[in-house]
Amino acid sequence: MEIKQAKPFVKWAGGKTQLLNEIEKSLPETLMTKKNITYVEPFIGGGAVLFWILQKY
User: Fold this and answer.
1) Of 11, 19, 36, 39, which is the most exposed, with the fewest CB atoms less than 10 Å away?
2) How much helix, strand and coil, in percent to the nearest 5, is found in the chain?
3) Measured between alpha carbons, how far is 24 from 28 in angstroms, rounded to an integer?
């Protein structure tokens, strides 16, 4: 079975893929140990941050 990495579904000029390192710095260090987190991204765009969080955490 091949596992593929999820990627944003729309290539977006204002996308956040290039900002993921900076976004990660602003997240709490305890994110990995938290349970039942609600993630809200009102203007999802291509979903870059959502997919990155789902894969990393």
Assistant:
1) 36
2) 40, 0, 60
3) 9
Torsion of CA 31, 7, 50, 35, to 10 degrees: -40
Q: What is the pLDDT along the chain (57 residues), one digit of tens a residue?
A: 787 777 766 666 667 888 889 989 998 888 888 888 888 877 766 788 888 888 887
- The CB density around residue 51, as the number of other CB atoms within 10 Å, is 16
Question: Which tokens sit at 57?
Answer: 């955490």
Question: What's the chain's Rg over C-alpha atoms?
Answer: 12
Q: CA of 20: how far to CAs of 2, 6, 42, 51, in Å?
A: 25, 15, 17, 11
pLDDT of residue 25: 93
